Amino acid sequence: MDFFFIEYRDPIFGLIVLFSVLLLIAVLSYFWGVFSLKDQKNSIDKFVSKFQSQSQLDPKYQNMLLNLDIDSNSLGVLAGIFARSGDFNKAISIYLIALKKAAKKGEKEFIFLNLGKAYLKAGFIERSTEVFLESIKLSTKNIDALSHLGLGFEKLRMYQKSLEVLDALNEQGVEVSMQIAYTKALEIKNSNMEFSQKIAKFNKLADEFNLINRMILETYIANNKDINEIKLKPNLDSCIDILYLNDGILEGDEYKELYSAKGQNNAPISDFNLNLLKIAKANNLNATLSFSYICNECKSSYPLFFYRCNHCARLGSCAIIPNVIKESDENSIAF
């Protein structure tokens, strides 16, 4: 019987078999790549047509940009100029055209990422999450796309999905402990839990993100609870606006200057604005404090307090700036 299988022990026959297998694998890989690219292109075309029908760019300009010999990178730069100037609708329209022209994986990743950012800044949150998901399909470890996807889920109050994205970032070595604590705190804040349950859960997260102490203060006031029962009291810098407008008095040396400015004690004051307010009140002048809110990262200014900057998305970057102003007399306002 060995006589019939002797050719299988021939080294030349073994090499022929090996090269045949390698050739077969190469051919299959080639056809798989061709069909894969074709499916990807069809998928992108469907994706573009889904959103392009709502484009605010004139159809003749869309056709012109599609037919002109302009590559996707140049269109991406043009769209970026519109995005930086705040014209997100035009930026989105051009990014969609660029996506149709993109051939390389890197080009598609770049356009998907910036298209998602444009949708996010324009306020189309659900669309932005769809775009970032498409971007992640191209590159599952794209940290920028994952970060913005988590932000989109957070804005949509899909906190569990946001936490899943943060876990994926954590596995890649990105420091997200503060963001995880904040997302969990938002979920607690917007839940139907009883007051005591909320406070207990907030307390467990306070070490990871110190502004959770402000959330605790807000929760006590919203539920008409005694704020002096708070175990983890917030820093004055992070809640001076709340305490100034609230009628209650939070006990502690850190808060004495504020209440001295309001005329509720005689403690010495080192802060310029608080001292100015106290002097004005001592001289029977109609003065009060107004507050502005500035991001320490991008210097954007807002009329209300924020935990996360709406412009640069930095967490915990809000600086509360008190200013002494003349108190308006509501009786003198003409309605």
UniProtKB/TrEMBL annotation:
TPR repeats lie at residues 109-142. Keywords: Membrane, TPR repeat, Transmembrane, Transmembrane helix. PROSITE patterns: TPR. The chain crosses the membrane at residues 12-32. This is Tetratricopeptide repeat protein. It comes from Campylobacter porcelli.
